[in-house]
Design goal:
By secondary structure, this protein is of the alpha+beta class. It contains 4 helices and 4 strands. Strands 2-3-1-4 form a 4-stranded antiparallel β-sheet. Strand 2 and strand 3 form a beta hairpin. The longest helix is centred in the first third of the chain and has 17 residues. It is elongated, with a radius of gyration of 20 Å. 12% of the residues are buried. The structure holds nickel (II) ion. Nickel (II) ion binds next to strand 2.
Length: 138
């Protein structure tokens, strides 16, 4: 861990009490830890604006495995991007939700721009019922 520097922050009482209430609800034990997380999150969001920044992402999707074409395309895409030199897809988790639906979580690593492209390709596949991407800059 790098050297720690102490800073003083001036906030009006109302804002501070709202902040304290929020972080207490989230389970933070100190303001410092909550503020550190806020700063990290903000910096990570900023880095996501840069398509060349390094990031990791989880693509979550729900689909009906009876749409065999989608199942094939999904597997095909995962193999392509795994063997690819940039290797965006590093892992996946498959859960059979019920008789029809499957939940798949695909983990991607790479540059923000590449990750978004692969994620969009996955989520736009015909047969995907629900999907979302959670991306963080590393
Ligand atoms: Ni399944």
């Amino acid at each position: 861990m790098s050297e720690i520097e102490r800073i003083g922050v001036s906030l009006d009482k109302e804002l501070l009490s709202m902040f304290d209430e929020l972080i207490a609800g989230q389970g933070y034990e100190s303001r410092s830890e909550a503020i550190r997380d806020l700063v990290r999150r903000r910096l990570s969001e900023e880095r996501l604006q840069n398509p060349k920044a390094k990031a990791v992402a989880a693509v979550l999707l729900v689909y009906d495995h009876h749409s065999t074409k989608l199942t094939e395309s999904l597997i095909g895409l995962q193999h392509t991007h795994t063997l690819d030199s940039s290797r965006q897809i590093i892992s996946s988790l498959h859960v059979h939700l019920d008789e029809h639906d499957c939940l798949e979580v695909i983990i991607l690593r790479g540059r923000v721009g590449e990750i978004n492209k692969v994620a969009e390709k996955i989520l736009s596949m015909k047969g995907v019922k629900l999907g979302r991407v959670n991306i963080v800059a590393t």
